[in-house]
Amino acid sequence: MKTVTDIEVLERLYGVPAKQSVFKEVDHLHPAYRPFIEASPFVTLATCGPDGMDVSPRGDPAGFVVIEDEHTLLLPDRRGNNRIDSLRNILTEPRVALLFLVPGVNETLRVNGRASIVIEPSLLERFTFEGKQPRSVLHITVESVYFQCSRALIRSELWNPARHVPRSALPSNGKMLAEISQGTFDGDGYDRDLPDRVKSTLY
Known about the structure:
By secondary structure, the chain is of the alpha+beta class. Helix content is 30%, strand content 28%. It has 2 domains: 16-156, Electron Transport, Fmn-binding Protein, Chain A (Pnp Oxidase, Chain A, Roll); 165-200, no CATH class. The chain has a 7-stranded antiparallel β-sheet with strand order 2-1-5-6-7-4-3.
């Protein structure tokens, strides 16, 4: 299989980036970019660490990622599965990347920076929601910001309801767990209890 192993070959293959693809990248939260963060209810958080890479979905009502200033974002860490893969990575390698999505909008916003895990009580209190505080807040120092063009979401038709896949068309959580455990896990019971469990532990 022919592969690319040289940066010069790669650059010849793809050519020179368009002028706007370069100057759109800035080192701060430019006013033109802030509305994407404020309107976004969903962001993916990418981290890296000694055991490899991780990409984690984060979501809350739009504006849950707070713009503290032009170089700082605050991201509450809501209740999850307690694997804390992203947080483990940040402790050893603070570099992070975020991809903000806005429902119905094909452009996305990319933010790169460095994160620290903050447990200051006053900050946790700021992010109380539904009566629950996050266990920690990520303090993200922004290093680069730029918007991603619409091609990927247009090609995928991500927001097209006609393309939405019914959940029933895919294996349930319980079925996947039962198969992975070779039948030693009670998948039917897991599926039966899941809706109430998610509702009671959302925050």
